[in-house]
């Protein structure tokens, strides 16, 4: 939750931020609810629609800000780790090199749709940005048209039209996880069948991209001893105002004026990251970007608005003049950033937009087809003129050495009693590389569970005799489901053993020129003989001479027929591997996790549902 003023959809955001808080914050919560009710009542007295709109927007934004502050202050400090938001920047010598990689590594995949009248196009971006604002540089990507195999060019349109009788290119409405996807829609004619093979297929996608790269990125490493101190590097400066358990307050500035290209819409130059005593990065839980002085100024403006009977151009000019004069006095920017866990060290990075490089490029990208399974014997090349590293691989691969104690310690138990006929106890753990290699040959063995009542002191009492259909244990999903309507007595405890699964993983490292039989590296392609290295038992990771893991673009399984069995697989990488790591599951063991769970209580009336 990053909150800034002014906001444009305060009403919607207010509803999203409603939530519980700790008892110590109840008075603030009540006060806020009263303030919200008073504000909504005051809106009823405003008759002028324009005035009502601006009062609603600014007043709603101030309430949203206060609610966000309350939510962030009252959130329990539970450690949750994230990734290094700047990891990708550390692989490229300049911001411009990163821009070039972003643009030159972009390609387009042809994806099959379940409908004969649709063909999906997926732009594949080479870089992953784990930051609240995704790609930190100002950028714009516009698709313009698609060229079909019959040379016809179809212009891009922002929405699919039901009345357009022709072929259309528009954003995909079916894939919310990939908002950049596009769909080529062929006309549907009632009662007339269509052979997709005879339809003109997309062969290239046209568009244009613009990216603005900052002059540089500079990071300040701060600790508790830096509180109150201003650190400066050339035109950039940072002051650590406060460093508390899970949040920090920072002021920052750039003494050089912004470049003309970004003067009208200055981009956010700040990236704040925190580590705990383990050295791992903490995930962010939110940020506030308004100082007390700024909030007081907006509150004053709101009060002036509420005193008006009607909106006028003269009043609007007065507000704008006041705001310009106030902003002119604000020479430094502010941020209060919250993290999920106790902070040990802080990394404050600033993007210097006092000088920029603007890259504009017209795109004409071939549409490539790489089905996950194919019966083609020929290996299709996929070479891109960029090198991209997988910064999450090293952390992910720690799961290869996961042991029984680590697995047990990672278990979290949750309950659900909303439906008394299907109450649940769930045993979850963070997904790891070990889970990926578990395969399908599970032998969970026994999964005993006994339900108990409690005595007058709330301690565990006698066992409850139950028919077999009263509960069900699902070891593969790590869940116990029970029907409270079949219990003669109210259960208070569940005691038993839940099977967990642990793979034994063998790791080997090879030079690219000394690979074992069944593995071959050809440029950026790793070819795997699936008879010697079956997919369910093996995983492969590649490095280049830098010692970093290369990011895999995609993989294709070449099968003897549509149903398999697999002949060989091809893994494509952004870059040329010089070393290969193989990971083989050599054994699968069952770990018994003993538990005693105090059951959540169901309201008596719910048992009759």
TrEMBL record:
This is Uncharacterized protein. It comes from Pseudomonas umsongensis.
